Amino acid sequence: MSKQSMLDFMRSMARDAGRIMTERYMGPYQIYTKPDRSKVTDVDLAISEMAREQMARRLPDIGLHSEESPDKEIIKDKPYLIVDELDGTSYYIERKNGYAHQSAFFQPGEGLVIGLVYYPWNDTMIYAVQGEGAFMEQKGQVRPLKPASAKGLHELIFAHPARYKGEKYMRLLRELGVGDNRIAYTTANRTLLMAQGQLDVNIFLMPRIPIWDLAGEKVIVEELGYAHCYLDGSPVTFGQEPPPGNRGYLLCRAEWRDHFLEEVPRLLPSEYRQF
After folding, report:
1. Of 128, 145, 162, at which residue does a domain stop?
2. What is residue 275's predicted lDDT score, i.e. its pLDDT?
3. Is there a contact between 201 and 160 (Cβ–Cβ < 8 Å)?
4. Can you give the residue range of the structural domain that contains 228?
C-alpha cells in the first residue's frame, strides 16, 4: 500500500471517528474507570470497534495498535496503524473542546511515516507524511503548513498540561524564567496550537507515555520543524521502551533542542530527577 493510500484511509477513518463522537456528544453513553483510573466511554469503544472492523476488512496485513484494542502485542517487522480512538476522553465527558482522534502509520525500516490529528469540534484535520510536509484541512479546504519560524528564547510559549493540579510543571517553568504570559494550558489541542505557531515548548515529566498519545503528533510536528525526543536526547521509537531511568520527554522548536536538553535535567527538583 502506498503512503497516499494509507493517508486516505486514515483520513476516512478519522472522519468516521469524528461522526461517532459528534452523534453521541450529548449522550447517552456509559462511562467506565480503567485499572489505571483513567476514563473510557462507550464512545471510545465504539470507535475502537469501528477501527478494528475497517482494518480487518481493508488492511488485513497491517497491525492495529490502539488504546482500546485488547491486543497490545507488537510483532517485529510488521507495519502498524497506531490509533488513539478518543484522545481527551475526560474533556469529551465534560463537553469541552479538549478532545481529538489521533493516528500514525509505522513502516518497518522507516519508522513513523504518517501522522494525523482530527478535531471534530471545529472540523480541523492536521496530517503529515514524513519528508513531504504538514497540511491542515478545514471544511474541505486543504492548505500546507509552514515550518515554525525562528523565535528568541524569551518569546517562546511553554505548555502546561491543563488537567495537572500539582506543582512540578509550574516549578520547572519558573526555574526556566517563564512568566504567566508565556504559558499555554494544553489539552489534546496541543498539536493544533503548534501548527498555528502558538506553542513552542512541551516538557513532559513522565517516565512513559503510551505511543498512541504521541505518535500522530510526532510526525506532524517534526515536519513543522520541532524536535521530539526523551530528556536524554534519544529518539522516541515505536516498539521500543523508554531508556532506563527516563525522566521525561521534550517536544520543542528544533533550534532550542540542545538548550533544553541541557537546562531541564539540571533544573528538575530532586524528586523528579529519577522515576
Report:
1. 145
2. 43
3. no
4. 153-272
Alpha-helical runs (H) found in the chain: 3-23, 42-58, 89-93, 168-175, 190-195, 215-223, 257-267
- Measured CA to CA, the distance from residue 169 to residue 179 in angstroms comes to 13
Residue 217 and residue 219: Cα distance in Å, rounded?
6
Taking residue 195's Cβ as centre, other Cβ atoms within 10 Å add up to 23
Query: Which among 203, 204, 205, 207 has a CA at the least distance from the CA of 275?
Result: 207
Distances (CA, A) of 178 to 159, 168, 191, 251: 11, 14, 21, 16
208-255 tens-digit pLDDT: 999 999 999 999 999 999 999 999 999 999 999 999 999 999 999 999
Residue 77: which residues within 8 A CB-CB, separation 6 or more? 108
Tens of pLDDT, residues 130-148: 999 999 999 889 999 999 8
Whether 115 and 47 map to the same domain: the answer is yes
Same-domain status, 50 and 174: no
Give CA–CA dist 85/111, Å, rounded: 21
